[in-house]
Here is the input.
Amino acid sequence: MEQDEVISEFLRVYNTCQPHNYQIARWPDRDNRSSRDCDAFAEAPGAASLAIEHTKVQTFNNQKLDSARFLKVCGELENELKQSFQTWVSMTVPVHAIQPGTNWNGIKETLRAWLNEYHACSGSAVKCL
Here is the structure.
């Protein structure tokens, strides 16, 4: 479900819990990309306006921390290597795979070498992996 759908569904349910019928009047964050505005602004006749902000709910404990660790390790590689492959390359890393105390730079260098090796032989008839 996309963010706008989540906000619209929230507002639909919210309207069943109180006497007003709120409608989304505008999407400030879409309209102004130069600053961080709320995601949606809803209004209802005779009621205070609502500023609605969508935030990600963690599906497991420390999900944001785990994601931040992963991006610290692999985020640079995505930008660095994005033009290196002629086809889409996807890599799955298990949740909690990057633990505190791990040599993150070593992981990054190992992944870089592995991806570059994959790239070097991906055009050949021999399966490299």
In short: Strands lie at 23-26, 40-43, 50-52. Helices lie at 3-16, 28-31, 63-81, 104-121.
